[in-house]
C-alpha cells in the first residue's frame, strides 16, 4: 500500500496508545518532523506518561506546530488524537497557515493493540486505558470522514501498517523544478488575435488546424521557452472560447501553465449551472459559446476548474498569481490563498468610480520571490517591491503585455480596438509604486532589525536603540525619500603618550601602518557642522527621481537626518548656487546624472549650533571668566596686605588663563551670517550620482572631482587642504605633523587621516575609513577649559576606543549600503532601514567626547 | 565661585572669631567633590573681608558616574566649577558649620548680634533673571545690587547671560546670612548634584523654618529646594499652618481659573463624538502619556483601544497611568506613528488625532494622510488642532508665536477648513467642522475640530 503525503502538510496520526504510531512515525519521517505529546510531557515533567501535564504539553506542541507551519515544513503530530476537539484544534491551526491536512487512522484490531501493549513491559499501560482508547477509536472511525482532512488514510492490520510506503508529493502549486526561461502573459480576456500576435512577436511558431466547431493549436519556441498565463482568459473580449482553445492546447502540450482568474472562476460557476450576475463581460462569453457543443463546454469547464490558484516556479524565485500573493500564502493551499490570488484585497467602501477600493498589497510585500500578477489594469508595468503587474488592459484598448523571464524584458502588442470601457482609469506607475506614501511599515524597523550589507556581516539592531531612533525619525528627521545616506561617526586616534597631548597624528599613522597601509591622505578638518547635500540638476528631479510631491532643488541635512536650515529659501538658494557651479563645471554631463549626493562640512559652526554655543560654550566662558577674575583680584588684595597666598594665586591664575583660552577656542568658529556668501561649504566626498556610488574611487579622485566644482563658486564653496603621506617616509611623516601643529595653533580643529582608498578591508573586516586628530585648543571645548592641566590630562588618558571604532565601521558599511540600494532603485523601505539602523547605532551610549 | 563677606564695624576682626577661621593664613579644606579655600583679602581696623572659594574636581566627579548618564557634552563642559551651586551650599555648611549653627565659644555674645555685613556672590546663575533674585533676597531685608554678565563681548548680539554678580547688604546676624545662602543657593541651582532625599526636609527646616514662614516665595523656595513634589508638599503645608501670621497676598482669582481647562473640554468633545457613533474599536494616534485613553476608560467608552506614539518614554508613562484603572476594555499601547503603516491598527471604528498634526512638518502631512485615511481607513476620524486666530487672546503669546515650542504650524480656521476639505474629498469621507472652548468675538474658539465620516457603500 502507498500513501501520498503533500510535501508541506500537517499529518495527524490517530489511534490508541500502543497501536504503533510512534514506531510508524520514526520509520517514515525525520525525528525533527515529529511532534509527539509524550516528548513534550517528558520535556516538562521528566515523565512522559504524566497525564496531569497534558494541557501544558499540548500548549507547547501547538506552539511548536505553528512555528513549523509558518515555515511551511511538513509536520507529524504523534498523539492519540482520538478526541474530536483535539483534532479540530489541529485543523484550525492548519487552516491558519493554509497547509493541507492528512489523517492516518490506526484502526487496528483489539487483540493486536492489547498484545503490543503487553510487549512494552514496564511502560505498558493499564488495560482500562487501552479499553477506553478502543472505545474512542470506534467512535472516531464513524465520524472521521465528516471532518475536514484533505487526505485520509487508515490501517486495518499490523501487516498493512508495516508494508506501507510513504510517498511525498509536491503540492500542485509547487513547480519549483520548472526553471524557465518563461514568457509570462497578463490578462487576455478573449483577445485572441492580439494573443496570437504577441506569441509570434515572442518568437513562438503557432500552427492552427480547423476542425468541426473549433480550431486546434500547436506551438513551439526555438529556445524551448514556456508560457505562463496569469488567468482571466475570458470575458469582455471578442473571442473568449478561442482563447480557451488556444491556451488549453498549449497546456496539454506541456508548453504552458495557467493560473485561475476571477473571471475564469465565474465562468466555472456559470457552466456548473449556478446563478451568476450576467454583467462585467460574461454575457459576451456566453454569447460566443452559443455555437459550441455541450462536450466542448464540458471540457472547457474541466480545464478551467482544474486551474490552480498560483504557481511557485524557478526554485522559489518566481510566483505567479492572478491578483498577486503575499509571502505568507505562497506555496500553500486553502481558501484564503485562493481568495487572495483570485480577488486580491479590498478595503471598506467604494472609490469614486463605484468600484471596491483595492489595497495595494505589493506595498507590504517583503518576499524574496518575484511575484507576477495582473487583475487591475495599469498604464505601464512598474517593478515595485519585487512584484510586477503586467495587465496592461488589452481588452480596454490598452495593450497585451508579456514579461520575458529571467531577462525581465517587457514585450507587448497594442489592442486592435477597445472592446470594453474601463470603469476606472488605468493605474499610473505612481499609483502602483506610490511616491506619495513611501509605504514604510513599523514592523520593518521595530521587529528585530537585521541588515545584510554587501560590505559587512549582518548588523543587528537592539530593540532599545531602534525605539530611540524611531522617535528621532518621526519627530525630527526629514522626509525618508530624501534621506538616502547618513555619514558614519569617526573615531579619534589612540590616546597619545606625547606629553601635553591627548591626540597626536603619530597614533593615527601608526594605526594604518599596523594594518599594512603605506599611503594615507591627511585632510584639514573644518570646524563647522557635518552636512549632507543632495543637489538636483532641476527641481523636477525631486519628483521624478526622489518621488517627492513637490519640485525642489534638493536638501541639506545634518548627520542625524534633520534639515540643516530652518529657512527653506536660504537652503534652496544655496542649493541652486551649488547646482550652478556644477553646471559650469560640466558635472552633469561628465557623470551622466541629474542629481548628486555630497558629504560636506558647513561653516560657520555658529550657524547651526547657535543654541549650543550660547547656552553652553559662551555661558560657561562668561561664568568662568568673571568668577575667576573675582577670585584672583581678592587673592591679590590678600597678597597686598601681606598674606602668603602665592600658591593659591598661581592656581587660580592658571585657571583664568585656561578659561580665556577656552573662549578663544570656540570664538574661532563663530561669525555672523547675514547673507548666503557668509556661509562656507566644504565638500569632501562625492558620495553618489545616478546609478553610481563612488566607494571604489580613492580620496584623491574625490578631492579632484569636488575641486572642479568648487572653483566655479569660490565665494560659497571651499576646497579642503590635503596632503598625501607615505608612512615609511619619515620626512613626510614629520612634515605632516608640523602641518598639523601649525594648523591647530592657528585655531584649526585638526585633521582627518584616511587610507588612500575609500574602502579598505583588513584581516578582521573593514578598517577605519577615517581617524581624526584634534588639536590641543579644540579639545578644550570638548573636554573642558582645564582639561590639559597635568593632573587632569593624566586621568583623561584612560579612554576606550573599541566601541566607537566598531560603531564607525558598521555605520560606514550601512551608509554605503543605503546609497547602493538607492542607486539600484530598490524600494524605499530597503534604503530606509539602513539609514534607520545608523540612527539606531548612534543611540548607543558612548562617550560623546570621542 | 567666590563668596566674600565683609564686616564693617568697630572691631572688625570679630569676624574671624565668629567664623572660627584664622585671618592670617590661607586654609584648605578637603571635600568629597574638591577643595575649599578660606582667606582674608582685607583685615583692617574697621573692615574685615573673608573669602571662601571652591576648586571643584569635575573630572573626578564624572568618573563616578555611569556612561549611560553622560550622553551629552553638557555633562562634561558646563558651568558647575564656576557658579555658586549646591556644591557651594555644602561647602558653607562644612567650612563655616559652627557659624551657620550659631555657635561661638570665644565671643558667644556676637552670635545674636546684628552686624553691618556685605556679601558678594560671584557668580550666581538665575534663569528667572534679576526678578527671581530680587524676589528671593529682598523680602529678607537685603539691599540687593545685581550685575548681569554679557554672554560674550565678542558677540554682543548674543545678549545677556543668566549669570549675575550679586551684592547683598544688611545689618544682620552672621548665622542668618549664612543660613539664607545655605538654603537659597540650591534653590537657584537647577541641576542639584545630589539626589534629594528625606533628610533634606530636615535640613531645610533646620536652616530655614524661622524665616521661611513669612517669606512670600516660600512655596517656590521649598519646591525648588526639595525638587520632588512628594517631599515638598508636606513642608509647604507645615509652613502654612505654622505661620498664619502673614496674610496671603491678594490673589486675583481670574475668570480663567474657574473655567474648565481647555484640555478637559477637548477630552469631553472627542469622547462625545466617539460615543455618538458607538465606536468600539478606537485608535488614539499620538496618545502621548495616555490622557485621552484614561478619560475614555473612566467614561467606559470603547471595547478595544490602542494608543500609538513614536516616543517610547511617554508610552511608559501612559502605561503607568492606565494600569491603575479598572476596566473591561482591552487596552494596548504600541510604538508607532502616522508615517509608518502597521496592520495591527486597521479595521478600527474610529481614530483620533488630538493635538497631533501641528507637531508634523507641513510637507509630511500628505504622508500622514496616506497612512491614516487611505491605509488605516477607520469609519470615523477625529482631528483637533489649535486655532491660530485665537492666539491673540493669550496675553503671554507674542504675535506670531506658537502655543508650544514643538508646533511646526498653527492654522487659522480657513486654513484648517481648506485642508480638511481636501482630505475628505481625496479619501471619500464626509466632513463636519466644529470648535472647542469658549468662543471669542472674531477669532472663534481656541481649538478646532474636524470629524470625518467614511462614506458608506452606497451602491
Automatic annotation (TrEMBL), chain A:
Cross-referenced Gene3D superfamilies: 3.60.21.10, DNA ligase/mRNA capping enzyme, P-loop containing nucleotide triphosphate hydrolases
CDD domains per record: MPP_Prp_like
Molecular function in Gene Ontology: kinase activity; phosphatase activity
GO cellular component, one term: cytoplasm
Keyword set includes Cell cycle: no
Pfam families per record: AAA_33, Metallophos, PNKP_ligase
Positions of the Calcineurin-like phosphoesterase domain: 181-379
Protein name as catalogued: Polynucleotide 3'-phosphatase /polynucleotide 5'-hydroxyl-kinase /polynucleotide 2',3'-cyclic phosphate phosphodiesterase
Source organism of the structure: Seinonella peptonophila
Automatic annotation (TrEMBL), chain B:
EC primary class: transferase
Record-level GO BP terms: regulatory ncRNA-mediated gene silencing; RNA methylation
Domain of life according to the entry: Bacteria
Cofactor entry: Mg(2+)
Pfam family of the protein (one): Hen1_L
Keyword Magnesium: yes
Gene Ontology molecular function: metal ion binding; RNA binding; small RNA 2'-O-methyltransferase activity
Keyword Chaperone part of the UniProt annotation: no
Domain spans labelled Hen1 N-terminal: 1-236
Domain called Methyltransferase: residue spans: 282-378
EC number: 2.1.1.386
UniProt keyword terms in alphabetical order: Magnesium, Metal-binding, Methyltransferase, RNA-binding, RNA-mediated gene silencing, S-adenosyl-L-methionine, Transferase
Record field: catalytic activity: small RNA 3'-end nucleotide + S-adenosyl-L-methionine = small RNA 3'-end 2'-O-methylnucleotide + S-adenosyl-L-homocysteine + H(+)
Similarity comment text for this entry: Belongs to the methyltransferase superfamily. HEN1 family.
Protein name according to UniProt: Small RNA 2'-O-methyltransferase
UniProt source species: Seinonella peptonophila
Amino acid at each position: 500500500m502507498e500513501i501520498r503525503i503533500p510535501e508541506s502538510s500537517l499529518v495527524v496520526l490517530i489511534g490508541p496508545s500502543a497501536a504503533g504510531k510512534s514506531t510508524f512515525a520514526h520509520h517514515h519521517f525525520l525525528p525533527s518532523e515529529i511532534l509527539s505529546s509524550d516528548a513534550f510531557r517528558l520535556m516538562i515533567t521528566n515523565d512522559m506518561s504524566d497525564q496531569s501535564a497534558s494541557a501544558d504539553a499540548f500548549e507547547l506542541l501547538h506552539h511548536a506546530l505553528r512555528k513549523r507551519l509558518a515555515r511551511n515544513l511538513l509536520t507529524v503530530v504523534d498523539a492519540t488524537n482520538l478526541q474530536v476537539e483535539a483534532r479540530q484544534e489541529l485543523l484550525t491551526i492548519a487552516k491558519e497557515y493554509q497547509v493541507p491536512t492528512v489523517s492516518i487512522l490506526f484502526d487496528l484490531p483489539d487483540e493486536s493493540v492489547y498484545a503490543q501493549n503487553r510487549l512494552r513491559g514496564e511502560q505498558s499501560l493499564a488495560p482500562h486505558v487501552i479499553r477506553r482508547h478502543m472505545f474512542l477509536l470506534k467512535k472516531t472511525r464513524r465520524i472521521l470522514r465528516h471532518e475536514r482532512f484533505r487526505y485520509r488514510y487508515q490501517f486495518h492490520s499490523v501487516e498493512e501498517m508495516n508494508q506501507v510506503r510513504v510517498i511525498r508529493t509536491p503540492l500542485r502549486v509547487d513547480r519549483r523544478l520548472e526553471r524557465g526561461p518563461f514568457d509570462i502573459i497578463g490578462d487576455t480576456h478573449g483577445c485572441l488575435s492580439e494573443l496570437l500576435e504577441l506569441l509570434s512577436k515572442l518568437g513562438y511558431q503557432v500552427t492552427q488546424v480547423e476542425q468541426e466547431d473549433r480550431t486546434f493549436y500547436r506551438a513551439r519556441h526555438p529556445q524551448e521557452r514556456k508560457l505562463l498565463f496569469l488567468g482571466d482568459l475570458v470575458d469582455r473580449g471578442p473571442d473568449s472560447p478561442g482563447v480557451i482553445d488556444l491556451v488549453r492546447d498549449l497546456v496539454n502540450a506541456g508548453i504552458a501553465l495557467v493560473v485561475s482568474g476571477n473571471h475564469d472562476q465565474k465562468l466555472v460557476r456559470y457552466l456548473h449551472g449556478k446563478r451568476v450576475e450576467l454583467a462585467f463581460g460574461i454575457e459576451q462569453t456566453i454569447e460566443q459559446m452559443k455555437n459550441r457543443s455541450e462536450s466542448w463546454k464540458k471540457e472547457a469547464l474541466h480545464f478551467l476548474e482544474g486551474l490552480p490558484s498560483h504557481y511557485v516556479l524557478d526554485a522559489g524565485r518566481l510566483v505567479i498569481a492572478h491578483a498577486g500573493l503575499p509571502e505568507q500564502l505562497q506555496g500553500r493551499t486553502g481558501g484564503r490563498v485562493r481568495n487572495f490570488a483570485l480577488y486580491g484585497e479590498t478595503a471598506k467602501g467604494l472609490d469614486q468610480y463605484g468600484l471596491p477600493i483595492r489595497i495595494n498589497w505589493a506595498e507590504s510585500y517583503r518576499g524574496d520571490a518575484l511575484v507576477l500578477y495582473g487583475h487591475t489594469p495599469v498604464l505601464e508595468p512598474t517593478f515595485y517591491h519585487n512584484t510586477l503587474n503586467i495587465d496592461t488592459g488589452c481588452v480596454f484598448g490598452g495593450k497585451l503585455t508579456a514579461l520575458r523571464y529571467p531577462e525581465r524584458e517587457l514585450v507587448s502588442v497594442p489592442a486592435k480596438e477597445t472592446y470594453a470601457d474601463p470603469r476606472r482609469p488605468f493605474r499610473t506607475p505612481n499609483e502602483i509604486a506610490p511616491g506619495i506614501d513611501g509605504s514604510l511599515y513599523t514592523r520593518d524597523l521595530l521587529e528585530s532589525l537585521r541588515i545584510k550589507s554587501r560590505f559587512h556581516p549582518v548588523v543587528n539592531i537592539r530593540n532599545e536603540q531602534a525605539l530611540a531612533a524611531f522617535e528621532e525619525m518621526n519627530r525630527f528627521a526629514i522626509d525618508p525619500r530624501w534621506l538616502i545616506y547618513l555619514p558614519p561617526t569617526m573615531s579619534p586616534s589612540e590616546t597619545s603618550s606625547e606629553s601635553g597631548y591627548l591626540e597626536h597624528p603619530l597614533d593615527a599613522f601608526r594605526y594604518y601602518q599596523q594594518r599594512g597601509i603605506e599611503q594615507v591622505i591627511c585632510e584639514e578638518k573644518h570646524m563647522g557642522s557635518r552636512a549632507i547635500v543632495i543637489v538636483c540638476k532641476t527641481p523636477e528631479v525631486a519628483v521624478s527621481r526622489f518621488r517627492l510631491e513637490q519640485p525642489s532643488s534638493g536638501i541639506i541635512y545634518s548627520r542625524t537626518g534633520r534639515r540643516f536650515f530652518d529657512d527653506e529659501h536660504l537652503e534652496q538658494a544655496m542649493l541652486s548656487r551649488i547646482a550652478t557651479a556644477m553646471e559650469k563645471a560640466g558635472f552633469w554631463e561628465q557623470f551622466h546624472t541629474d542629481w548628486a549626493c555630497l558629504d560636506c562640512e558647513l561653516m560657520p559652526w555658529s550657524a547651526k549650533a547657535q543654541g549650543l554655543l550660547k547656552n553652553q560654550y559662551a555661558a560657561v566662558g562668561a561664568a568662568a571668566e568673571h568668577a575667576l577674575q573675582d577670585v584672583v583680584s581678592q587673592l591679590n588684595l590678600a597678597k597686598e596686605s601681606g598674606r602668603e597666598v602665592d600658591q593659591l594665586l598661581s592656581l587660580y591664575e592658571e585657571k583664568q588663563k585656561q578659561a580665556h583660552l577656552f573662549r578663544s577656542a570656540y570664538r574661532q568658529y563663530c561669525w555672523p551670517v547675514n547673507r548666503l556668501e557668509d556661509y562656507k561649504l566644504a565638500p569632501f566626498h562625492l558620495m553618489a550620482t545616478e546609478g553610481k556610488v563612488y566607494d571604489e574611487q580613492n580620496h584623491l579622485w574625490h578631492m579632484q572631482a569636488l575641486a572642479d566644482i568648487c572653483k566655479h563658486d569660490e565665494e560659497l564653496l571651499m576646497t579642503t587642504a590635503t596632503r598625501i603621506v607615505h608612512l615609511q617616509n619619515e620626512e613626510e611623516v614629520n612634515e605632516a605633523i608640523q602641518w598639523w601643529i601649525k594648523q591647530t595653533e592657528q585655531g584649526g580643529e585638526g585633521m582627518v587621516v584616511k587610507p588612500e582608498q575609500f574602502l579598505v578591508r583588513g584581516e578582521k573586516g573593514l578598517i577605519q575609513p577615517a581617524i581624526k586628530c584634534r588639536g590641543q585648543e579644540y579639545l578644550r571645548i570638548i573636554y573642558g577649559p582645564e582639561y590639559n592641566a597635568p593632573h587632569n590630562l593624566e586621568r583623561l588618558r584612560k579612554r576606550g576606543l573599541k566601541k566607537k571604532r566598531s560603531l564607525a565601521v558598521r555605520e560606514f558599511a550601512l551608509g554605503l549600503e543605503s546609497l547602493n540600494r538607492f542607486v539600484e532603485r530598490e524600494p524605499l523601505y530597503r534604503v530606509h532601514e539602513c539609514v534607520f539602523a545608523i540612527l539606531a547605532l548612534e543611540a548607543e551610549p558612548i562617550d560623546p567626547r570621542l | 565661585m567666590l563668596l566674600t563677606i565683609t564686616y564693617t564695624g568697630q572691631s572688625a576682626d570679630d569676624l574671624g572669631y565668629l567664623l572660627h577661621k584664622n585671618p592670617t593664613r590661607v586654609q584648605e579644606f578637603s571635600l568629597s567633590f574638591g577643595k575649599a579655600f578660606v582667606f582674608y583679602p582685607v583685615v583692617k581696623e574697621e573692615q574685615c573681608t573673608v573669602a571662601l572659594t571652591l576648586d571643584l574636581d569635575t573630572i573626578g566627579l564624572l568618573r563616578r558616574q555611569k556612561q549611560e548618564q553622560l550622553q551629552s557634552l553638557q555633562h562634561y563642559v558646563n558651568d558647575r566649577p564656576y557658579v555658586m551651586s549646591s556644591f557651594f551650599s555644602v561647602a558653607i555648611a562644612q567650612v563655616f558649620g559652627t557659624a551657620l549653627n550659631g555657635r561661638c565659644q570665644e565671643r558667644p555674645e556676637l552670635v545674636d548680634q546684628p552686624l553691618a555685613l556685605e556679601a558678594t556672590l560671584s557668580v550666581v546663575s538665575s534663569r528667572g533673571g534679576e526678578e527671581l533674585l530680587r524676589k528671593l533676597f529682598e523680602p529678607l531685608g537685603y539691599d540687593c545690587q545685581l550685575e548681569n554678565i554679557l554672554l560674550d563681548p565678542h558677540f554682543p548680539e548674543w545678549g545677556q547671560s543668566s549669570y549675575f554678580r550679586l551684592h547683598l547688604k544688611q545689618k544682620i546676624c552672621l548665622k542668618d546670612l549664612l543660613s539664607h545662602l545655605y538654603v537659597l543657593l540650591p534653590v537657584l541651582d537647577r541641576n542639584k548634584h545630589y539626589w534629594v532625599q528625606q533628610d533634606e526636609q530636615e535640613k531645610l527646616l533646620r536652616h530655614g523654618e524661622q524665616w521661611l514662614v513669612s517669606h512670600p516665595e516660600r512655596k517656590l523656595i521649598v519646591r525648588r529646594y526639595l525638587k520632588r513634589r512628594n517631599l515638598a508638599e508636606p513642608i509647604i503645608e507645615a509652613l502654612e499652618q505654622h505661620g498664619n501670621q502673614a496674610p496671603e497676598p491678594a490673589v486675583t482669582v481670574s475668570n480663567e481659573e474657574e473655567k474648565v481647562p481647555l484640555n478637559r473640554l477637548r477630552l469631553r468633545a472627542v469622547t462625545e463624538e466617539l460615543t455618538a457613533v458607538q465606536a468600539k474599536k478606537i485608535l488614539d494616534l499620538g496618545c502621548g502619556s495616555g490622557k485621552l485613553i484614561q478619560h475614555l476608560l473612566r467614561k467606559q467608552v470603547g471595547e478595544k483601544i490602542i494608543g500609538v506614539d513614536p516616543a517610547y518614554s511617554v508610552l511608559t508613562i501612559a502605561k503607568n497611568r492606565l494600569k491603575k484603572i479598572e476596566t473591561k476594555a482591552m487596552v494596548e499601547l504600541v510604538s508607532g506613528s502616522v508615517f509608518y503603516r502597521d496592520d495591527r491598527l486597521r479595521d478600527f471604528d474610529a481614530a483620533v488625532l488630538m493635538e497631533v498634526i501641528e507637531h508634523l512638518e507641513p510637507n509630511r502631512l500628505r504622508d500622514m494622510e496616506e497612512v491614516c485615511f487611505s491605509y488605516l481607513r477607520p469609519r470615523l476620524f477625529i482631528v483637533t488642532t489649535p486655532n491660530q486666530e485665537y492666539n491673540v487672546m493669550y496675553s503671554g503669546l507674542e504675535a506670531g508665536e506658537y502655543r508650544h515650542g514643538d508646533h511646526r504650524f498653527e492654522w487659522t480656521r480657513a486654513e484648517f477648513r481648506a485642508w480638511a476639505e481636501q482630505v475628505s474629498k481625496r479619501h471619500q469621507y464626509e466632513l463636519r467642522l466644529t470648535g472647542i472652548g469658549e468662543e471669542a468675538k472674531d477669532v472663534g474658539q481656541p481649538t478646532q475640530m474636524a470629524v470625518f465620516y467614511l462614506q458608506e457603500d452606497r451602491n
